[in-house]
Specification:
heterodimer, A: alpha/beta, 2 domains, 9 helices, globular, B: 273 residues, alpha/beta, Rossmann fold, five-stranded parallel β-sheet, disordered C terminus
Chain lengths: 266, 273
């Protein structure tokens, strides 16, 4: 008779390019993003795990509602890692569709497409970016997009908790590099406020299944550990940072899973 | 066998019906298509594996881009097995949408739909096929294949950004004589495609052209009529041979990848939760 098999721990990872991209891209296969590191770490610890990375390039929080039935109601993950908000609070003026169109990676080749995307759409986006650069200044008051992001996140957590209370991990949003601050003057402060709001959501949760996971302390393990080193392109972690974040998340997930009867090891 | 659970080797399959259909269909469960044979073979070799057969009947190469984010950017496969541009080599002028409509398998039943699909759409497709048979000739109507090769080139370029997966481009097999009677320009377009795929494989570091013609010698008589009796789709025995060959390539490559070896990547210290 074969030995009993564990029910796999289901982990859903939601986020924008920060859960998919590394600084820099085109590296070797061992440049894993933190979702895959998390899977590797859980497996190495003897925990059967199924990690689904449902990140979407340029995803805003409100878009998570479109896939909620598939991601949450149907699949019913045990752990939901939400590395969200960074993109929502990046731009203050540039429309989402224009940013996505101008920076789209998976474009069909062709003369017209090339002209339209590379020349026309990018040019329009650049003009809006220049205007945005002038109006985006520090000031702790959140803009409309940031307020909406917090409102949507709160609602998403509420409806997700209905599905048998998975562990919801809210990942701290990391600060930008100086080069990015030069372009997005108020972003740094918006990130600080957004992190405070996420922390408050986790603390206010009475069920104890929402956790705010910090990760800026991990930067101290590197020398010099500056944003310019750890997310060289200004936004996306380098593979070493992805590894540390994945290890930390795996630790949080494993600790919680060990308290769940349905995930008990045979 | 390693006692440490391995990170599963992720394999994505992209292509048309050749990845999902057998000659002939309606066989027993053991009639596996080559993606599943590959999975079974790798498991036999004690390799943890996670496969995703994303093939579709009548799939066109230009459709590669619509699903790229889900399949490549989000899922990040270690290996991509592709049979690009197969559909584009077959027809000279028949519009792909008409071909898909006329041969769709998963249609809702109903008297009106039956009439529309079986009589009108199939009748129209049949008419275009007869015209196509007359105008098609070796060396003609190669534009679709060239465009499809361009799409494949761009797809390889953007896919390599996502941590350079191993990409296997499968050779397009030769048609049966019966099919050549219907599509006279197909063999020349097939040659053009295979040459183009070989050139792409030479241009990129982690892209390989995988020949399947050499597997035909394992069979007796080993003719196209024997190995893909319906003219296009492999017999289950040939699917097995392809799956075994691909599994050997995949296992060999995976053995060189630290993240798939069940070993720790030791460069970074383990962080306490």
């Amino acid at each position: 008779m074969s030995s009993p098999i564990q029910l796999p721990l289901r982990v859903l990872v939601k986020g924008a390019s920060n859960v998919l991209w590394t600084s820099m891209m085109s590296g070797p296969r061992s440049d894993l993003v933190f979702a895959r590191v998390m899977e590797q770490e859980l497996l190495a610890g003897g925990r059967a795990a199924e990690v689904r990375n449902a990140g979407v390039l340029g995803m805003e929080i409100h878009e998570m509602f479109d896939t909620w039935e598939d991601d949450i109601a149907r699949w019913s993950p045990d752990v939901v890692v939400m590395a969200v908000g960074q993109y929502d609070i990046l731009h203050t003026l540039l429309p989402h569709w224009l940013e996505r169109g101008a920076n789209r990676v998976n474009r069909r080749p062709g003369l017209f497409q090339r002209w339209f995307y590379r020349r026309f759409l990018r040019l329009v986006a650049r003009v809006v970016l220049l205007v945005q650069r002038r109006v985006d200044r520090p000031g702790l008051k959140l803009d409309r997009r940031s307020r909406r992001a917090i409102r949507d996140l709160t609602e998403y957590i509420k409806i997700t908790q209905q599905v048998a209370h998975p562990l919801i991990i809210l990942l701290e949003v990391h600060p930008p590099t100086a080069a990015k601050i030069a372009w997005f003057g108020g972003w740094d402060e918006r990130i600080a406020v957004f992190n405070d709001r996420m922390r408050a959501i986790a603390e206010a949760d009475e069920s104890g299944t929402v956790r705010f996971v910090e990760m800026m302390d991990l930067a101290a393990q590197f020398d010099p550990g500056t944003p310019e080193q750890l997310w060289a392109d200004g936004i996306h972690f380098n593979p070493d940072m992805h590894r540390l974040v994945g290890q930390r998340l795996a630790g949080v997930a494993e600790e919680w899973a060990s308290t769940q009867p349905h995930l008990a090891r045979p | 066998m390693s006692s440490v659970p391995q990170l599963p080797l992720r394999i994505l399959f992209k292509g048309p019906s050749t990845l999902v259909w057998t000659s002939m269909m309606s066989g027993p469960r053991t009639d596996l298509v080559f993606p599943r044979v590959m999975e079974a073979e790798l498991i036999q070799r004690h390799r943890q594996v996670d496969t995703w057969n994303a093939a579709r009947n009548g799939w066109l190469t230009r459709d590669l881009f619509a699903t790229w984010e889900d399949e490549i950017s989000s899922w990040s496969p270690d290996i991509v097995v592709m049979t690009p541009a197969h559909m584009e080599t077959v027809h000279a002028i028949l519009p792909p949408r008409l071909e898909r409509g006329a041969n769709a398998v998963s249609r809702l039943p109903g008297r009106f739909r039956r009439l529309y699909y079986r009589r009108i759409l199939r009748g129209l497709a049949r008419f275009v096929l007869h015209v196509q048979r007359r105008v098609d000739a070796p060396g003609r109507f190669q534009g679709r294949v060239k465009r499809a090769l361009g799409y494949t080139d761009e797809y390889l370029r953007i896919t390599q950004q996502v941590q350079n997966p191993l990409i296997l481009l499968l050779e397009l097999h030769q048609p049966t004589q019966k099919k050549i009677d219907w599509f006279p320009g197909w063999p020349a377009r097939r040659e053009l495609l295979n040459d183009g795929l070989r050139q792409l494989a030479d241009r990129y570091d982690n892209v390989r052209f995988v020949s399947i013609s050499d597997l035909m010698g394992q069979f007796d008589p080993g003719t196209p009529e024997d190995l893909w009796a319906d003219g296009i789709h492999f017999s289950s025995a040939f699917h097995r041979a392809i799956g075994e060959k691909l599994a050997a390539i995949a296992d060999d490559w995976a053995a060189s990848q630290a993240h798939l070896g069940g070993v720790q990547l030791a460069a970074v210290p383990v962080v306490p939760a």
